[in-house]
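Recall that a protein's primary structure is simply its ordered list of amino acids. Everything else, from secondary elements to tertiary packing, is in principle encoded there. The following example makes that idea concrete.
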Amino acid sequence: TPEDHPREPVDPYSSAKAEAEEICEEFRGHGMCLPVLRPKTFLGPGRMGLFSMLFEWAEERRNFPVLGRGDVRIQMFGMADLVDAVVLALHAPPEVANDVYNLGAAEFGTLREDFQAVLDAAGHGKRVVPLPAAPALAVLRALERTKLSPVYGRLLFKLLDDSYVDIARATERLGFRPALSNQDAILSTYAWWRTQRRGGAPAPGAGRTSRDPWRQGALGLAKVFF
C-alpha cells in the first residue's frame, strides 16, 4: 500500500486516524509543517498486548494457534527503528518533513514464521498450530461480544489478510533504513519480556492497551488443548 492510496477506514479506530490526517492537511494549508508517520505494528520494550499471550504460552511449553494456515504476510516494525524515523523527520528540512511516510520493516515474512521463531527461541520444540479460519473466527467474535476474549474484531481481520506497506518514500526522501526485520523485532521483544518476567511477572492490565499484558479470558482456558 503506498501513501497515496485512498483512506478507507473500517472502524472507529481507523476513522480517528483518518480524521487526524485530515486535520493535519488543513493546517498544512495554513503554512504549518506537519510530518505524518504511519508505522506498522511496532514491537520493543514496553510493548505487550497480544504478544504477551504468545510469549507466555511459549514459556509454558505450549503450542500456539493461528487462524488459518498463518501464511499471511504481516509487516511489523522495531521500536528502535520507529524512534530513528521520528528523529529523521524532526531534523529533515521542511520540504522533506512536510509529507506522509509509511514506516515498517523492510524484511518480513509470514505470521506463522514470526510466531514460530518465538516458539523456537523458547526451546521446547513447540509448533504453531493452524486452526480452521471460519469456525475459529466465529468463536472469537462470540467471545468478544461477551467480553470473554481480548482479541477484538479489527485485529481478527488483520490476522486473516496480508498487511504491508511501501516504505520507498521514507527510504528515498528521509533516508530511512530500518535495521530490524520482523523476526528481529519480535525476538528482541520476547527477550525483554523474559527479563521482565524473571523480575516478577507483569500484572494483567485492563485488557486492551499495548503496554499491559492482556487478560486472556476464555483463551486462557484454551491453553490445555495446546
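The first helix runs from residue 12 to 28. The two ends are 35 Å apart (CA to CA).
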